[in-house]
Give the backbone structure.
Amino acid sequence: MPLIEWGPKLAFGIRVIDHDHRMLVDIVNAFHDALRGGESHRVIGSTLDALQRYVREHFRREERLLANSPFPYLADHIARHHELERMVADLNTRWAEDPDSVDARGMHQFLKDWLVNHIQQCDAAYVAYLKDNAPGERPARPDNDAEPDSGTENDTPVSVVVRVPRGRVPTLRSAADVLADGGRRADQLEKLVSA
C-alpha cells in the first residue's frame, strides 16, 4: 500500500501541476517502498536524489506559471519553496554522509506530511489564479489514472526508474514530458521509437 494515495484531494485540474504533484507523490512512495523493503543505502539515496531534483524542477515550473498570473502571494510562496528545498537537500546530504545518523522512518513521515500539506494548503491557494490565467491549459482528469472508456491499462501513468548516461538525462526528461502530456507529439514520438 502506498504511503500517499493519489486522488481528487491532491488534484487541481491543472494538467502540468497535477502531473508534477503526481510525480512527487510517486517518488515519495518509492522512497517509502525502498525503506519498507530493506533496500540498500544506495537505492534509498538515489531515490532521495530524484526527489531533490524533481522538487527543484517542479518549484521552478510552478513559480514561472505563478509569475504570469495575478497570484498576490508569489514572494511568500517562493520563500516557502526555498525553505522546503533546503530541507530536502539537507536530508539528502545527511543521508549521503551517514545514512545511519538519519531517522529514516521519521524522514518518510516528514516527506509525506510536507508534500500533502504543501499541496492541499499552500498550492491550493493559487489554483483560482492559475485556472483563470492558463491559456490553452487542458484540465487534468480528476483521478489522473486513465482516459475515460480507454479499457486498457496502457493509459495508466506509472513511475519508471531507468539508468541512462548522464548526458542523455535531459533528452529522456523531455521525451517523458512529451509522453506524459499526450497528444499528437506523443503519438509521433511513439511511432519514431517503435520504428
